[in-house]
Structures are given as C-alpha cells and as structure tokens.
Write a structure and sequence with these properties.
Blueprint (H helix, E strand, L loop, with lengths): L1 H38 L3 H16 L2 H6 L1 H17 L9 H7 L2 H17 L5 H21 L6 H6 L1 H7 L7 E5 L9 H5 L11 E2 L9 H5 L5 E5 L1
Antiparallel strand pairs: 1-2, 1-3
Helix pairs in contact: 1-4, 6-9
C-alpha cells in the first residue's frame, strides 16, 4: 500500500512539474510575441542574437521556448489533439517526413540568395516584396497545418529554425539517455514535436532538435538528462 502511495505521489509531483514548466514556456512565448509586435520582423534577429550564448550551451532554445510562431503552433496542436484524437500526427507518413524536413533548409538558402541579389541590385523591390509575401503565406499555412501535425512550421518551413538548428552541431551540453533507467516506454518519442526517436539514442545529436526538453521532463523514469558532451 505504501509503495502505491509513493508511486502516486511521484506521478502527481511529475505532472505538477510538467504543468509548471509548460506555464514558463507560455510566458516566454508571450514575451517573444510582445517583442515581435514591438520591433516587427527584425525582432527575430535580435532575440536569436541575444540567445546565442545559451544556444551554444544547450541548443536553439529560442525555437523551443520563445518563438511566438511556436506558441501559435502549440495552440493549433492542442485543438488538433482534442478534435482528431489518435488521428493527430498521422497526416504525414514518416517516410515523407524524413524527406520533407530538409525543405526548410531550401527556404533558408533561397532567402539568403534573394537578400544577396537584392543588395547587389539584381533583384528589384517589387520581386523582393512578392517573395516576402510568399514566405508569410507559407508560414501562416504551416501554422494552420499544426492542427494536423505537431509543429509543422518548425519541421518543414521555418528558415530561422533551419539556421538555428545548425547550432546543434557545436553545442556543449546534449540530451543523454541512461539505458539502465530507460524501459523503452516511448513517451519521449511521442512528446518530441520534431519526431526524433529519442528512445533509440544514447545521445540526442539530431540537428532538428529545438531544445524544448519535453523528452527530459516528461520521462517517467528520469532516464534523460542534459549533460556535458
């Protein structure tokens, strides 16, 4: 009886901790949205520059904790889970996902090339404006897609996320899995918005990781931790 009570208390404590962390994330996302509304499109650059020191330590935390687009995707995903139930996250097969996730890098390169061509006055303002409108349309559509697929914009369309993900190549601390504690329940895989198979890795080195750390704090056996590489 005592063991059952202790287990129940542990689960309750874990759920409260998850709720508290998600509240912190929501507050930070609102801060990110406020910065975006005040500074406009340039705000993303400012915030990413400010978070670079922390990003070099544990990865692109801006994507996982402050990005206002992430907040809208999370809201769309919350509604999608309630409406679709088990059908949520089934729209895109994993085989297609593995190819489609590189599309955001294509968008990033396309934008960089466009900026260079504009600075060299090879591309006029009208074409640049059309490209910006197209990128905004893609982002809005991808946020709406999060009703069906978790963080669709982050996975497939975000140029800023593509650039930030490159930081994962040089971060000092990484998510590590203790195989002696892990019972392969798969919860870490299910909560990962970027569809990384965390339960199959000893060290999470995937470039698509957005450092949201949901896998770490939702692991029921505390088998995941953030440690020096």
């Amino acid at each position: 009886m005592g063991i059952r009570l202790n287990k129940a208390e542990t689960i309750t404590s874990k759920l409260k901790n998850i709720k508290r962390i998600n509240t912190y994330r929501s507050v930070l996302q609102l801060v990110g949205l406020s910065i975006f509304m005040y500074f406009g499109m340039e705000s993303t650059i400012y915030v990413i520059l400010l978070t670079i020191p922390l990003a070099l330590l544990v990865g692109p935390v801006y994507c996982g904790w402050m990005c206002p687009r992430g907040m809208f995707q999370d809201l769309a995903g919350l509604m999608g889970r309630k409406v679709l139930g088990k059908r949520y996250n089934k729209l895109i097969p994993k085989e297609v996902h593995n190819r489609l996730r590189y599309f955001r890098y294509i968008i990033m390169i396309f934008v960089l090339v466009t900026v260079v061509l504009y600075e060299l006055q090879i591309v006029g303002e009208s074409l640049e404006s059309a490209i910006v409108d197209g990128l905004i349309a893609i982002m809005v559509i991808s946020i709406l897609l999060s009703f069906f697929v978790d963080r669709a914009a982050c996975k497939y369309f975000c140029k800023d996320g593509a650039a930030a993900s490159l930081i994962n190549l040089v971060i000092l601390k990484k998510i590590k899995r203790n195989s002696s504690l892990c019972d392969s329940c798969g919860i870490c895989d299910r909560v990962c918005p970027m569809w990384i198979n965390v339960s199959k890795k000893d060290v999470v080195e995937d470039k698509t990781c957005i450092s949201c750390f949901k896998c770490v704090y939702e692991c029921p056996r505390d088998a995941l931790s953030i440690e020096e590489d």
